């Protein structure tokens, strides 16, 4: 669907399955992720997605910017631009991961949920992978360096007195 054909008060969603197959649907900003799952299930593209068919709408989950969307989240709450196309992933999944006390996702027995952000490996873009966290310097922490700095200052002061 081209940008000309998208009504200015609607959002065009390009949904990508794990297999890589895509289909576009037009929704209102007040539509929730749950509403979208029901609409997609009821209007399943049989010709294109026949091998991806699911048993019920409740197991269809949307992923936007690497995060699963809860069924109550609306497109408007995400701040999606009207009259434009937004890409999301659509995956079959019984349960959403539950956040632990650190805000990280805890899986429900699905090996794909062990990934950061609980996104299946097939959907992760390696170009967007974050490098491992590194300290910003190679030296000892500041507290450990303080005595060495004080010793250096004393020895420098002694040298200046000798001159």
Automatic annotation (TrEMBL):
Residues 98-163 are annotated as: Disordered. Residues 127-142 have a biased composition (Basic residues). InterPro entries: Ubiquitin-like_domsf (IPR029071), UBL3-like (IPR040015), UBL3-like_ubiquitin_dom (IPR039540), UBL3_Ubl_met (IPR047977). Residues 143-154 have a biased composition (Low complexity). Residues 9-103 form the UBL3-like ubiquitin domain. This is UBL3-like ubiquitin domain-containing protein.
